[in-house]
Structures are given as C-alpha cells and as structure tokens.
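Exercise 3.2. Students should predict the tertiary structure of the chain below and write it as structure tokens, then compare their answer with the key that follows.

Predict this chain's 3D structure.
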Amino acid sequence: MGQDTVEELTKKLKIQSDIIKGYEKVLRLNEQELANADEIIRMYEQIIDYSRVELREAKETVQASTMVSNLSRDELMSAFDKIKSLEDANRKLREESLKFSKD
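Answer key:
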C-alpha cells in the first residue's frame, strides 16, 4: 500500500522533472530580464552623462557669451569715454581758438 509501483515513480519523476524544467526556464527568463534591465540602466547612465556634458558645455557657452557681451559693453563704454574726452578737447581748442581770434 505504501509502495509505489515503478510506473507511478516514473510518472512522479517525470512530473518533478517537468516542474524543474519549468523553474529553470523561468529562471533563464528572469536572468535575461535582469540583463536587459542592466543594459537599460547603463543606457540611461550614458544619457545622463551625455546630458551633463551638454549642460556644462551650454553653461560654458553662455558664460563665454556673457563675457564677450560684457567685454563689448566695456569697450563701448571706453569708446564713449574717449569720444567724450575728444569732444571736450575740441571744445577747449575752439575756446582757445576764439580767444586768439578776438585778440
């Protein structure tokens, strides 16, 4: 009664073997999914690194543009100062010239 026949044991072994094969297949699928997830993570990390570089370069470009803009503004202000200085000098020369012409 407690003894299984060879046929029943063979049947049980086949069922257990099928169950093990099913678990092995699930395990392989999980391993593939994990590998895919790792690849996705690496791709996102590359995108983040690339974005970081792009952002840094964009920031440097803006800084350079601001520096050029400031430099241009400084040059413009300097040119206006020179113009004002030359105008003052011309006005003084005219005044001196008028003094001599009156004499």
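Discussion points: The mean pLDDT is 89. The chain has one domain: 1-75.
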